[in-house]
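@channel anyone free to eyeball this complex?
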Amino acid sequence: MTTIVLLSLLGLITLITGLFTIKRYILPIVVSGLLVVFAIHTSSISIINENGPMFNNMMKFDQFSILFSGLILLLTVLIVFQTQKFEGETDIPLPELLTLFLFAITGALIMVSYTHLVMLFLGIETLSICLYVLAGSRRSELSSNEAAMKYFLMGAFASGFLLFGITLIYGATGSFHLAMISAQIQNPAIANSPMLIAGILMVLIALAFKVGAVPFHFWTPDVYEGSPTLVTSFMATVVKTAGFAAFFRLFFLAFSHTPPMWNQTLWVICALTMTLGNITAIYQNQVKRMMAYSGIAHTGYMLMAILALNQVAVSGILFYATAYALATIALFAVFITLQKNYKLDSIESFNGFAKKNPFAAFVVAASLCSLAGIPPLAGFFGKFYIFSLALKQQNFWLVIIAIINSCISVYYYFRIIVAMYMKKAMDEQTIEIDRMSYLVLIICMLASLVLGLFPDLILSLNA
Amino acid sequence: MVSIFYFLSFLAVISAFMVVIAKNPIHSVLYLIMTFFAIAGHYVLMNAQFLAVVNIIVYAGAIMVLFLFVIMLLNLNTDAEQNKSILIRLTGIVAGGILMITLIGAFKQVSIVKDTTFYASGQAYDIGLVKNLGNTLFKEFLVPFELSSILFLAAMVGAVMLGKKDIK
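replying in thread with the prediction:
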């Protein structure tokens, strides 16, 4: 709870500093504030096991929530680092932009630590409302307006599904508390009640929408493409992680004893998500659209961990989300600069990039290899871990589909690498990347490599 | 009591249906107001007078007036709906129909058991009063109540940022 309170306070402070003309200090304030929050957050790990549910069972800060909150905070630091160069890209001034980011992750932290369905709804809404605004923050651009509008309308619709599902679950079990629901479901009469099953399916639909799983993915490419690139990178990493954590927490704490009804549904969603995401990504020529479809494909892999639904799967999701986020942030950090230079969205903007900036090109290549799952990078181990998790659950067919899909994904990831190293550049000028982005690139690169070689660094956290 | 329930339900369903099929947006809004009144009637039946009043003031009053304003300001009160292709209509009908079948199937098998001890204790008759609502809100639901202020602040910042004329 301290983390959430501090984070919302930090948001307020940022908002107020916008009143004064000390713009230079805002970014250092926010970054150091986030790091302080993270430090306080990690110091609470030691006392966590005594922490019971808090505030009438509204939230519980268990190991799961501490781990995912930490990941969300660190990823946000990486995103916030890049806001300086990004300032000209939006019509929203820096203080308000940062405030919205901070409030968004406040919502994300609620989403990873709730034990009450009302808190789940509140967290998702806080996160989403900030995102609707951030997606539309380039007001003068039509595509940004379109992204915000589409995201808002569809997101509101999905929230409706979530609420209706919560109502039905309440009707069947008589409680909003995850532990109480889980206890009620032990009773077969309640577990088989059609109202509960309808409720679970509706909540499943809403959460599948939020993480962008097929067939509820239609908003993803348009919203990713239209939003300012930094916001896209935020959505693809922090928001996706929070969405998965909320998804997993709900099903793990409340519905692990229900009949396998939702399991089969999720199986189909999972297979469809991987396949459609990867196959559609092949046909994309724009980097952001391609990354959107690749994000959908990665959603599919992560859903495999939700299908497993045990304590080991927590490590799987945590590791996979970290690996995916690190690679995505690095890729987008370079792409923002390229976009500024060429005013282009297509893959051609990467042509000959290796000659212009060998280091950045190398980091992009490494990130793409990590996304494709090539050892020794973190992405490989993430995939390996999740696939082996599914194998233990006897999900052979799903693993076969996933492996075929991984092979497909290599093709479109390597299109960018080929463009960087083998194609001729459009012009001769070198591309400089600012210092903050270099820092982000180095951090992402090192973290990907280290986590790929020593995955226990993260896996041992969830002991 | 039961006949009032059926009447209100009938009214709510019919007017909600009309909201969707009415061609003129203003008619849609008026039907929506009717739906809200019918639902407020349901709240009264369930002894939640406060919710009923709030529902009418906030939804039927404030929000719907805003709706009407926007529709008139943007001059949308003509039939401006584009013709959608048959395929899209068919998809909508199939998806909506499946959802309806699922829900009807779910609700059909639900049996409502009247909790007699709850009624005998008399709690049922003042459960929706402001006093009890406040107690629940500030005791059990204190955390969501406070955290929703973040949500509203974020929405406010966003609305100002998106609506302001020239920001820089």
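from a first look: The mean pLDDT of chain A is 88.
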